[in-house]
Amino acid sequence: MSTDSPLIIALDYPSLDAALCMADQLDPARCRVKVGKELFTRSGPDVLEALHGRGYEVFLDLKFHDIPNTVAGAVQAAAEQGAWMVNVHASGGRRMMEAARERLDRHGLATHLIAVTVLTSMAAGDLAEVGVTASPGEQVERLALLARDSGMAGVVCSARESTRLRTLCGDDFLKVTPGIRPSFAAAGDQRRIMAPRDAMAAGSTHLVVGRPVTQAEDPMAALAAIEAELAGE
Ligand SMILES: O=C(O)c1cc(=O)[nH]c(=O)n1[C@@H]1O[C@H](COP(=O)(O)O)[C@@H](O)[C@H]1O
Hints:
Residues 6-226 form the Orotidine 5'-phosphate decarboxylase domain. InterPro entries: Aldolase_TIM, OMPdecase, OMPdecase_AS, OMPdecase_bac, OMPdeCOase_dom, RibuloseP-bd_barrel. The chain contains 11 helices and 8 strands. It has 233 residues and is an alpha/beta fold. An 8-stranded parallel β-barrel has the order 1-2-3-4-5-6-7-8, surrounded by 7 helices. Strand 4 (85-89), helix 5 and strand 5 (112-116) form a beta-alpha-beta unit. Helix 1 runs parallel beside helix 3 (46-53), helix 4 runs parallel beside helix 5 (94-106) and helix 7 runs parallel beside helix 8. The longest helix has 14 residues, at 136-149. The model has no long low-confidence stretch (mean pLDDT 96). The structure holds orotidine-5'-monophosphate.
């Protein structure tokens, strides 16, 4: 099933059962879902099959970062398992991203291939500690332009950078933004956050939301509350 909702719910769970329990409370007509490192490491590809069977489009968020040949193979494997979207780290460099792009094209695989710029949990001090003296905004711009030139369909970034990236890379370049916090939710470990409606106004094309929905007492009510915020209600 395909949806025109920008919402991607992060199924950050330690077991297949827990993830499917949440998926069964949500609706594939109203959101997509994201499978990340913890869940995939525990469940393997079974989780993709189970979610596809329930009608969900799945963003496989494994943030590949390795030598070009290894990443190309991993991206191909994700696409062949039917992932709607898959990501790599832009800091893996041009040749790594181009190898992944070329592999999908060669096999006629239509999965959206995007690149992570600067994680939304990182602020300027965190970047400085790993030797990046640019501000988060500058580093995101640099990596987004590199990602675009290397054939990526878009990037993962904070919504705070979406407006600038829309100007630099255009409307069609996907801006998938985690660190989304509706009015009712706590920031937690996220640093560069934004509310759903503000994020869309800023130019985000997709909003990744985890705990504000998955830790809610009534996840579907939380999803509906986010939809209402998006509609300006
Ligand atoms: O690639 C991601 O999805 C991602 C990138 C990033 O920079 N920041 C980030 O939070 N994420 C993911 O987005 C989700 C955010 O979850 P919540 O903070 O619970 O809403 C988690 O699954 C993170 O792994």
